[in-house]
Amino acid sequence: MNKPFNMATLFIMLLVLQVFVLNNILFLDSINPYLYIVFVFLYPLKTNRVPFLFYSFLLGISVDFFSDSGGIHAFSILSIAYIRLFFVKIYFRKIEADFSFFKLKSESFGKVFNYTVTLTVIHHLILFSFANFSFQNLSNVLLNTLFSSFFTLTLYFLGTYIFTKSE
Amino acid sequence: MQQFIYFFQKFKYFLFFLLLQFIALTITFNNLNFHKNKFVNSANTLTGSLYSRAANITEYWNLKSKNKLLAEENTRLKNLLQKNITPHLSKDSTVIDSTKYHQKFTFSTAKIINNNYTNKFNFLTINKGTNSGIKKEMAVINSRGIIGITDNSSKSYARVQSILNRNSKINARLKNSNYFGTLGWDGKAYNTVQLSDLPRQAPFKIGDTIETGGKSTIFPEGIFIGTISKINKGNSADNKVDVALFNDMSNLGFIYVIKNYHKEEIKSIESQNE
After folding, report:
1. What is d(CA B220, CA B65) in angstroms, rounded to the nearest whole number?
2. Can you tell me whether residue B115 is helix, strand or coil?
3. Rounded Cα gap, residues A78 and A59, in angstroms
4. Among the residues of A17-137, which ranges form H helices?
5. What single-letter DSSP state applies at residue B254?
6. With 50 as the cut, is the pLDDT of residue A55 above it?
7. Does residue B109 carry a pLDDT above 80?
């Protein structure tokens, strides 16, 4: 099985891409895509969730190490990693027996769209609230969430469109 | 006991989640506090060396503007030199005041390898650390003005708290008068900082130059900061003015780190008063 190897590659690729490329985009001075959360979308569903939570935390804290932001990336990616199962159950109507057969690729686009949009918006909202760290400039937080989510999701869907093999 | 184990079994994911969230929150709060010891920052060996490699590649893209900065600085320093030389030539003899040679500050040069300016709490990473004598709370400037204060250093890298950080507080004054205030940042525009607590009787207008006040142990006095760009009318208690920075904080390269030899002495005498 090369699944763990795939996930490790994805982990490092996403980290490097985020830190050295995407953090420097700064479209209109402040809007960045946060594509590293794709790790949460793509990690296979398993009954034992401890490794998944831990790896998500590790990815978040690695991004934090590079961007000097304390622990805000770790906090927000861990939040969506924990509530992921809840949304999988809601949108895809899966029970525990289906977990090992679950693949994002084989689901219909509408469901995948709902799922990724929800998780992305939650992640970005938590991230920007913590980055702001006050009750002032709330409109700024909301606008940043909106634009960055749009940016992240566009990149994600373009990426999946390019990298999936046509069958 | 069995109930206890059952409880752990049932909520193990949630408890693990809470534990990790607690760690993340602790790191976040520590990061906001200037004096706390921090371990999650970009001044460690791994991130530092990766950033310096990336900086090595990208620095070629703005060599031209860096050269221009150097030329500007040279011109300014040469002009200063001319001012000092001229009067001495007319004298027959010069008296050497040996107390003048008691050096107070040293400057050492370093390079910025990671720059942030879009967050509310911005930090920079530079490519020198404790091996080059760079410690906590040293001033960081470049030829155009102030940049920040070092807050954490590893062996060969250090992290700098930028003036574009909502926790930043720097003593600043109006040029050519001794009225001083506190320089902070409201987190909005990266080219504007705020000077507050200026005395009410201080005369100032738009376009006046602001420089460091020298009333702290970190910055020498007279380092440029910016010019007053907006004066808030009204009766607010803190008498706040906007200052447009001379520095373009989004385009920084080589910097100077300033060490104050008298810091310990000043600190010890100040602590006696408390």
Report:
1. 26
2. strand
3. 9
4. 38-42, 50-67, 72-92, 109-132
5. E
6. yes
7. yes
Residue B253 has pLDDT above 90, yes or no: no
CA angle A146, A68, B192 (to 5 degrees): 70
B260 φψ region: left (φ > 0), alpha (ψ -120 to 50), beta (else): beta
User: Which CATH number belongs to the domain containing residue B186 in this structure?
Assistant: 2.40.10.350
The tokens describing B131, both together, are 């091996």
Cα within 13 Å of Cα(A76), Cβ side:
24
Whether residue A66 and residue B42 make contact (CB cut-off 8 A), yes or no, is: yes
Q: Are B143 and B69 in contact (CB under 8 A)?
A: yes
- DSSP assignments along B57-81, one per residue: HHGGGGHHHHHHHHHHHHHHHHHHH
**Cβ proximity of B123 and B43 under 8 Å:** no
Q: Three-state DSSP class for A135?
A: coil
Q: From the list B16, B50, B123, which residue is nearest A50 (CB)? A: B16
Give the number of A-B residue pairs with CB atoms closer than 8 Å: 99
Q: Return the bridge partners of B224, or none.
A: B211
A68 touches chain B (CB under 8 A): yes
Domain total of chain B: 3
Same domain, B127 and B257: yes
Give per-residue pLDDT as tens, B157-211: 999 999 998 888 889 988 888 888 899 998 888 889 998 888 888 888 888 899 8
- Cβ pair A133:B32 closer than 8 A: yes
Question: Is A133 close to B23, i.e. CB distance below 8 A?
Answer: no
Range of the domain at B8: 2-32
**Are B64 and B118 within one domain?**
yes
**Sorting pLDDT into bands at 50, 70 and 90, what band is A1?**
very low
| B1 burial via Cβ count (<10 Å: 0-12, 13-18, 19+) | exposed
Domain shared by B256 and B239, yes or no: no
- The C-alpha atoms of residue A36 and residue A55 are separated, in whole angstroms, by 12
| A-contacting residues in B 248-267 (Cβ below 8 Å) | none
Residues B147 and B257 in one domain: yes
3-state helix, strand, coil in chain A (%, to 5): 75, 0, 25
Q: Is B33 on the interface with A (CB under 8 A)?
A: no
User: Considering Cα of B255, then B259, then B260, then B261, what sign does the dihedral take?
Assistant: negative
